[in-house]
Design brief:
The protein is built from 15 helices and no strands. The chain has 341 residues and is mainly α. Helix 4 runs parallel beside helix 6. The longest helix has 31 residues.
Amino acid sequence: MISTLAAKYRKYPPQFWLMFVGMLISTVGTSMIWPFLLIYASKRLDAPLTSIASLLSLNALMGLIASFIGGPLIDRFGRKWIMVFSLVANGLGYLALGYATTFAEFAVLLALNGAANPLYRVGADAMMADLVPKEDRIDAYALLRLSNNLGVAIGPAIGGFIAASSYTLAFYFAAGGMITFSLLLTRFARETLPARATRLAQDAALIEKPPKEKFGGYLEILKDKPYMGFIFSFTLVTMCATLIWVLLPVYATETHNVPMQLYGFIPTTNAVMVVTLQLLITRITKRFPDLPVVAFGSIFYTVAVGAVAFMHSFLGFLVCMIIMTIGELIIVPTSSAYVAN
C-alpha cells in the first residue's frame, strides 16, 4: 500500500495533497461529534426522536437548497474562497451547537450548518475536476475517501469517550479541525477556476451552445434523462446510508443499550475498511462500466438496512455496517467520477 501511495504522490499536483491532508484534519475533528449528534440533541432537549429527526431533515433541506445555489456561485466566483467560507461557517456552527439549549436554537444552527456544508463539497469536487484529468479521477476520488475515512477511523473511537464525559469538548475538536483546514486552504491553495474564455470553449465542445445564464445550466441537466435517472437512483441509495448513519446510533444505544463508547467502534470499522480496502476495490471496479458497478454496490446497502431490523446487539449492528461499507467501497468513487466526467 505504501508503494502505491508513493507512486500516486508523484502523479497528482501538490494542491491535491493539500486537500488530502486538510480533509484528514477536519474529519478527525468532526467525526468526534457527528455520529453522536442525534443522541446529544435528544438528551439536551429531552425531546422524542421524531422531533429530533425533524431537525436533521431541516439540516438536509437547507443543504439541498444550498447545493443548487452553490454550483453557479462556485462557477462564477471561484472554488477556493467559498470552500474556506464553508469550513469556517461549519466550524463556528459546531462551536455554537455546544451551547444550544432550546429546540429553536438547534433548529437555527442546524439549518445554517446545513446551508454551509454543501458549499465545501461542491467546491472541492469542482476543484478536483480542475486539478485531475479525466482518466485519473476515479483513483483521485478514492484517495480523498481514504483520507476522509482515516479521519473517521480515528475520530469516533476517541469521540465516544470524549462525548461520554463532555460533549462541549467534542464540539471544540470539531470546530478546531474545520477551521484549521480553512487556514491551510487560505495560505496554500490557489484558485483553480478556469478563465471565462476557456470555460466557454469547453462548453462549446460539449454542447451545441453554452447556457446563456449560469442558473440556466440546470435546465440542460434536467433534460438529460439518463443522468436524471442516475440522480434519482442514487438518492434512494443515499436514503439507505442515512438510515444507518443517522438513526442507527440512537437505535443501538437507546433501544438496545449499546454503550456509547462501544458504538464509536462501528463507524470506526467503516473507516478502517475504506482506508485498507478502497484502493484495491477501486482498482477492480474501474475495469467495468460505471453504472453497472453502482447498481451492484447498491445491493449491499439494501441488505444492510434490512438486516438492522433483525439485530439486537453491538456485534449484529457491526455486521450491518460492514455489509453497507462493502457497497460504499464499490459505489462512491465510481459515482463521483461519473458525475465529474
